[in-house]
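Chapter review: from sequence to fold.
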Amino acid sequence: MAVFTPLSDTQVADFLQRFDAGSLLRLEGVASGTENTTYFVTTDRRELVLTLFEQGEHEELPFFVDLLDYLDEHRLPVPGPLHDQQGIALQSLADKPALLFPRLPGTSPKAPSLKQCHALGDTLGHMHAVSRHFDGHRPNPRDLHWLVAMHHRVLVYLSPEDQALMADEVDNYQGFFGDAPDLPQGALHGDLFRDNTLFDGERLGGIIDFYNGCTGDLLFDLAIVINDWATQADGRLDPERYDVILTAYQARRELSEAERHAWPMMLRMTALRYWLSRLLVVYVDPPAHDLTPHDPEQFRTILLARLEHGALPLPDRSHA
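The token string follows.
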């Protein structure tokens, strides 16, 4: 159970009085959280999600609030946080920072259909097109600088072959991106896996969990999506899902020539990003709570597939 801070009905009923959201009918702890405490809150007027932030950089929470407000104002399917009757979103409850969100419809897809892939690509392209004008700033916490600094911490736990693979890849990224032209920048989700989306049938009901949100290379975000949404069990790319997502994306935001050139390397770098972050959780910095970490091997397999087979051709903008 991932409810780390228990709350009573009375506490939540009192909390709701700060908002224009109705009176509490039902409170339900959510077991799927990994870092924060989450409750589903039902009032006599609507369905809500209450999140208490258990760890992390609390001073960065205003960035996430501003980003969600901005995307919500641009009619993206994100959970724009509720603001209290004084216009303030970020609250305190049980001595923890707290946010109240609308509960978005749908469930996370395990095997997305092509229509779901199209909806995701279209929405991500829309999000990136508008996020280029977002004036908030939070450096990408898992970019190349992080890879360079952190990969040494796991090398001792790897085979000699994997040590060489990881060290050589980081060197390659430094050489490539150090000399490459700047890529288009904007606000990123930073972790847009299938389990951070909600689908109501074929319709994308919401993109959730923006706590890896940051500003940086838009292509980084897109590569994370492709490595999760359009990858087969053996690590190779799925041509149909790949084409559908990227065609829908480019109908909203065309990739630049620099992005097209950097694409195969970005797919490799984001695969290594998750291989490394999962290795760190297993060997170096286990989670504060008794939770099963994700398997690092999945993204080692993806990285090896990207090295062996490269990226599939990017769809032309004219086909979008």
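Two observations follow directly from the output. The radius of gyration is 20 Å. The first strand starts at residue 24 and ends at 29.
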